[in-house]
């Protein structure tokens, strides 16, 4: 049994079979063979070994001819390892006696040797471990037919363990079978964290190098409350965590009873609880959990993994379906919020050293107006099917907002001339996720119909912390006093101008912050569907006066650590059983 510590980004406990994705995206399956298939699979192994060996021989000969024998020595060393009789016998024994698939047997054997090299001192030994990983990948490529496994192809419950998960990979995963996620890299605001939270599955990121310690099919526990993963747990640990899973189910059943009840405080203040969705099918989860609408409909999934632009009809179908499903309840559609580095259909930026400060979100949309206009036309067309509202992301200047409104006006004019119906009075709002937007709130309230505070980016830009970097993850916190002042000032400015203001970042989906946010004057929150019942429970258990006293005290504290400790204590006083 091995216990590893990472960063908790989505709560809960999951127990299950590991699906390991290495750096090249291979799924290393633990598949057991029927007895009559053993000889056929051994033959497949031998052919893969022969092909892999031939590849290495060709590489060695080419390098030797071009650069000399000393540069080809690394390939000679690889050949020596690949031809090792003891290794062949060990892999074949796992296939014959344990009926492992060749992929799993190869991975199991080679990773055992790699781990031995990694445990030895010296740079030379570490390089030998890398050689073994290279050999493993080469053999697996031949066994798997040079194909990458897609998360969308998973057909049984698994826990995904990976170096990292790209936005396109997470966009294509099958939420029916992915029960938890762990990555070696990443921070609390990474895409993996956001997607896991949206799915309501336990997730831990920033664990560090650990994939060499696990093979596909191994039993793994993800503790999303404590930020831990446990590889190959013993029976005692399994029993304890199974008990925790049962307690989670029991609490979920209790929260289910709140579905039809309003989020109203003990002194009668109604709180609007909306849902964040990443994909259209998640609208069902919002309805099932009693959300008052969709406060953030991310539209990036339409662009990820594509070589061409999504058509206007593709956009329209995605938006109109959600609008129809929600009926009269509000649906806030956020326009494209990706960086140019994530969109294959656009040329890569020439000097994009820091994508978070580069060509992304509204900047990218205004630079590619045809792409932007296509999306806006589709949103407008869908607006006749429900209560759709339009929101622009990452607005940092008045000019950006006015330019975006001009493109919207052009799209309206196009539809009007074509006789296509749309909501001419559609509400147009903006995300508040850049400090400059907070500073200019007294001007933005004159032009925007509503606001939504995006804490994921607001924390990042306020504290100058890359939210996907595990090395500075300890600095990334919504509890920092500077962040709280920005939130307070935004809420106060919006309320003074009688403009609706909500919050859609991860912060408001954490019950630890609910009383503080209510105390700061927030009366609308958009959270992941899975978090709606828990946040509703907190709202229905406290008074505004109680929350205002908490907020008043918090604003006197000097650091995030003291603020978190105080908020945890206050929440524990209301709900002792909640993990905080």
From TrEMBL:
Record domain PEP-utilising enzyme C-terminal: where: 254-542
Cofactor annotation: Mg(2+)
Entry's Gene Ontology cellular component terms: cytoplasm
Class in the EC hierarchy, top level: transferase
EC number(s) from the headed UniProt entry: 2.7.3.9
Limits of the PEP-utilising enzyme mobile domain: 157-227
Residues the entry annotates as binding phosphoenolpyruvate: 298, 334, 456-457, 467
InterPro entries assigned: PEP-util_enz_mobile_dom, PEP-utilizing_PTS_enzyme, PEP_util_C, Phosphohistidine_dom_sf, PTS_EI, PTS_EI-like, PTS_EIN, PtsI_HPr-bd_sf
Coiled-coil regions, chain positions: 35-62
Domain of life: Bacteria
Catalytic activity: L-histidyl-[protein] + phosphoenolpyruvate = N(pros)-phospho-L-histidyl-[protein] + pyruvate
Cited PANTHER family: PHOSPHOENOLPYRUVATE-PROTEIN PHOSPHOTRANSFERASE
Record-given protein name: Phosphoenolpyruvate-protein phosphotransferase
Species of the source: Adhaeretor mobilis
Gene name as annotated: ptsI_2
């Amino acid at each position: 049994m091995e216990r590893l510590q990472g960063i908790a980004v989505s709560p809960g406990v999951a127990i299950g079979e590991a699906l390991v994705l290495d750096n090249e995206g291979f799924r290393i399956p633990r598949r057991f063979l029927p007895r009559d298939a053993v000889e056929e699979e051994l033959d497949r192994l031998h052919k893969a070994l022969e092909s892999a060996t031939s590849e290495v021989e060709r590489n060695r000969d080419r390098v030797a001819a071009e650069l000399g024998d000393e540069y080809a020595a690394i390939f000679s060393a690889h050949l020596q390892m690949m031809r090792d009789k003891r290794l062949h016998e060990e892999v074949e024994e796992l296939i014959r006696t344990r009926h492992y698939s060749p992929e799993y047997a190869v991975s199991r054997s080679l990773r055992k040797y790699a781990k031995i090299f990694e445990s030895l001192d010296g740079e030379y030994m570490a390089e030998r471990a890398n050689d073994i990983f290279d050999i493993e990948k080469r053999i697996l490529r031949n066994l798997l037919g040079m194909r990458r496994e897609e998360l969308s192809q998973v057909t049984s419950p698994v826990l995904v363990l990976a170096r990292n998960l790209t936005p396109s990979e997470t966009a294509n995963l099958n939420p029916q079978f992915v029960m938890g996620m762990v990555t070696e890299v990443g921070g609390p605001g990474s895409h993996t964290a956001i997607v896991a939270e949206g799915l309501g599955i336990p997730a831990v990121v920033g664990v560090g190098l650990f994939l060499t310690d696990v093979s596909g099919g191994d039993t793994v526990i993800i503790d999303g409350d404590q930020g831990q993963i446990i590889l190959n747990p013993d029976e005692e640990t399994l029993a304890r965590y199974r008990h925790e899973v049962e307690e989670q189910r029991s609490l979920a059943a209790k929260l289910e009873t709140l579905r039809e009840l309003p989020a109203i405080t003990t002194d009668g203040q109604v709180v609007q609880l909306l849902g964040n969705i990443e994909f259209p099918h998640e609208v069902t989860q919002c309805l099932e959990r009693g959300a008052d609408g969709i406060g953030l409909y991310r539209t990036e999934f339409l662009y990820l993994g594509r070589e061409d632009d999504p058509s206007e009809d593709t956009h329209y179908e995605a938006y109109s379906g959600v609008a129809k499903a929600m009926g009269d309840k509000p649906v806030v559609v956020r326009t494209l919020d990706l960086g140019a580095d994530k969109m294959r259909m656009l040329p890569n930026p020439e000097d994009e050293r820091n994508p978070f400060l580069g060509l992304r979100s509204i900047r990218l949309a205004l630079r590619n107006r045809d792409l932007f206009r296509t999306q806006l036309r589709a949103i407008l067309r869908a607006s006749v099917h429900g209560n759709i509202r339009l929101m622009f992301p990452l607005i940092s200047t008045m000019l950006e907002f006015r330019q975006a409104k001009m493109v919207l006006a052009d799209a309206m004019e196009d539809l009007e001339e074509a006789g296509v119906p749309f909501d001419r009075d559609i509400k147009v709002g903006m995300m508040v996720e850049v400090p400059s937007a907070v500073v200019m709130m007294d001007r933005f309230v004159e032009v925007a119909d509503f606001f939504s505070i995006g804490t994921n980016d607001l924390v990042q830009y306020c504290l100058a912390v890359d939210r996907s970097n595990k090395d500075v993850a300890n600095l990334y916190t919504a509890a920092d006093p500077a962040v709280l002042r920005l939130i307070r000032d935004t809420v106060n400015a919006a309320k003074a101008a009688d403009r609706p203001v909500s919050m859609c970042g991860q912060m408001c989906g954490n019950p630890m912050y609910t009383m503080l946010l209510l105390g700061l004057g927030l009366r609308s929150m958009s959270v992941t569907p899975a978090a709606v019942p828990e946040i509703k429970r907190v709202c229905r258990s406290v008074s505004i006066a109680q929350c205002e006293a908490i907020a008043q005290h918090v604003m006197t504290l000097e650091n995030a650590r003291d603020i978190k400790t105080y908020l945890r204590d206050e929440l524990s006083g209301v709900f002792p059983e909640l993990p905080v």
